[in-house]
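Sample entry (279 residues):
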Amino acid sequence: MSDPEDFPCKEGRPRGVEKGRVPRKHPLIAGFILIASWSALFGVFVASLPDVRPFKSPRYNMTLMVRDTKGRKVPFIVGQRNPYWAPLAYIPPALQWGVIVAEDDTFYEHNGFNFAAMRDALWEDIKERKFVRGGSTITQQLAKNLYLSREKSLSRKVKEAVITCKLERHLSKKRILELYLNAIEWSPGVHGVGAASLHYFHKSPADLDFFESVLLAAIIPSPRLYNPLRYPERALERYRTVVWLMYKSKLITLEQYNIAHAIQFRVDPLQDTIIISPQ
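Predicted structure, serialized as tokens:
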């Protein structure tokens, strides 16, 4: 009979393993399994988010639930079935660029995120110890308007980031801008640039002049705060800020800036509309 010492293992323990210790898998293998698991979970999470590709077609329509002027939830169509829908080609360049310089001046350059603006916004929020400003791009705002609630949570921010990437990947910048202008709120209960143009000026977006276009662009950050029908002086101040940003971005000349900066507007109480005139 062979001597037990000749066997490779004794007392049921692998050779080289001390008594009382349990063999461990290689840390690289464990790390790989962990990464693979998280990747799979993230893949499932991404797949569960809305598919933005239907918006590649100009004929696609999406119905949202929004608040009307009385605070009631009503359906709102983003797409050509909306009677106030305005294709980008019918939205004046002054309005498009006014929105871009005021809301997201690197819109045509970034891939959905402006990290410098996000950093500045975070720093300002920290200094004020409250939410003061956002650093969201137009694409991020579109993601929120189309697909997300208004809650402030980490999970919603992650969803927003993923949907933003999807929008940038599948849609052109012009399509993103078109959807954004036709989806956002311009006054309580007034959604989309077509309805806003009719609400403030009693005309379609295609008929807006330069001054009217810039005034509409100035309203966007806070339709309640800069509503020219209710707060004309405040709206005029914001309008002049946007005019300055357009001049600073070399979108208008100094002469055009001086003319635009000098305009005044008043509210026609009978028509409930804005009348703009030179000073």
